[in-house]
UniProtKB/TrEMBL annotation:
Species for this entry: Selaginella moellendorffii
Xref: Pfam families: Sec62 (PF03839)
GO terms, biological process: post-translational protein targeting to membrane, translocation
Transmembrane segments: 121-140, 146-168
Domain of life: Eukaryota
Keyword Zinc recorded: no
Name of the protein this chain belongs to: Translocation protein SEC62
Ribosomal protein as UniProt keyword: no
GO cellular component: endoplasmic reticulum; endoplasmic reticulum membrane; membrane
Keywords, in A-Z order: Endoplasmic reticulum, Membrane, Protein transport, Translocation, Transmembrane, Transmembrane helix, Transport
Places the protein is found: Endoplasmic reticulum membrane
Residue stretches of biased makeup (Polar residues): 276-285
UniProt-annotated stretches for the region Disordered: 272-312
């Protein structure tokens, strides 16, 4: 179907900005009408002959073929403390008028996007990865060390990026009075991987006002207080050593343990047991144990105690 192929091309185009929302208990991907018109104007080669002469005809063609549906926001009134409605609402409902319009109109795709090859490969590897995680105790020692160092590297990388991000924000907020967030989508739950690794900060909003000097001064005082409290009450080397002795460290146990040491320890534990078993087996069954040496030793100790008491 040429119209279906054309709709897939429009949906996969990078110029068309889209979001995800919930409509009738289903998760749908939608776009705005004005973004659709601006994309077609910027890319006139997308529209082929026979699909329409202008943007509205193309949109109405997609509406007639049920490839898109016109939607509207569920919450149409302002919430307390907000001055404008959100550009991308999280909940939508079906609009009775299924004609194209640019004014505050949203359109949801009704067909599923084709799954690329990497998603198919990933869906096959996920069960294998889950099974490998369940069998982690059976991994060789070197593989456990690789997994441990990889996890520690990722944790240090994530927390390092967050700390540097907060420091840059604090300096720019105090000195310049600007809110600069590098990696702006790193803590977003609904962001894709390409949006998470976006480094440059987003441009400031039009209705965003610069912070007042009083708020900047208060933020500076709070920051200095937190830093002073952390430095003042941080544990010294002796306290850290006591904490390390009192708490078992699983990382040290993994690093110190090795299969060779474990096998050598088992052999050393098994050697005395074999010796005792050998001595018991060489002793005759009818022979009684000799306790004479033990009784003589006890008599000698009693005599020494009596002599010490007499001297006192």
């Amino acid at each position: 179907d040429p119209i279906q192929v054309f709709a897939e091309r429009l949906r996969d185009h990078k110029s068309l900005e889209s979001r995800w929302a919930v409509m009738q208990e289903n998760r749908v991907e939608y776009f705005r009408g004005k973004d659709f018109v601006s994309m077609l104007k910027a890319n006139p080669d997308l529209v082929k002959d026979g699909l329409g002469s202008d943007e509205e005809e193309v949109a109405n063609l997609l509406l007639r073929t049920k490839l898109i549906l016109r939607c509207e926001r569920v919450v149409k009134s302002l919430r307390p403390g907000k001055k404008k409605l959100s550009k991308w609402p999280a909940r939508l409902q079906l609009c009775p008028d299924q004609s194209f319009s640019q004014n505050d109109a949203f359109y949801a795709w009704t067909f599923e996007r084709k799954r690329p090859l990497w998603q198919t490969v990933l869906s096959f590897l996920l069960p294998v990865l889950t099974l490998a995680c369940c069998l982690f105790p059976l991994f060789p020692h070197w593989c456990k060390l690789v997994v441990m160092y990889l996890c520690l590297t990722l944790l240090v990388l994530i927390f390092g990026i967050l700390i540097i991000r907060w420091m840059i924000f604090g300096l720019s907020y105090i000195l310049l009075g600007k809110r600069v967030w590098f990696f702006p989508n790193i803590l977003a739950d609904d962001a894709s991987f390409s949006e998470i690794i976006k480094f440059w900060p987003e441009p400031p909003k039009e209705d965003e006002k610069p912070p007042k000097w009083t708020s900047r001064l208060a933020f500076t005082c709070v920051t200095i207080g937190v830093v002073w409290f952390c430095v003042r009450h941080s544990p010294d080397e002796a306290a850290r050593a006591r904490y390390q002795k009192g708490v078992s460290n699983i990382i040290d146990e993994i690093l110190e343990w090795s299969p060779k040491l474990a096998l050598s320890g088992k052999v050393e534990e098994a050697a005395p047991a074999n010796i005792t078993e050998a001595t018991e087996s060489t002793q005759p069954a009818n022979e009684k144990p000799d306790f004479s040496n033990a009784t003589e030793g006890q008599d000698h100790e009693q005599e020494q105690q009596q002599r010490s008491e007499q001297e006192i």
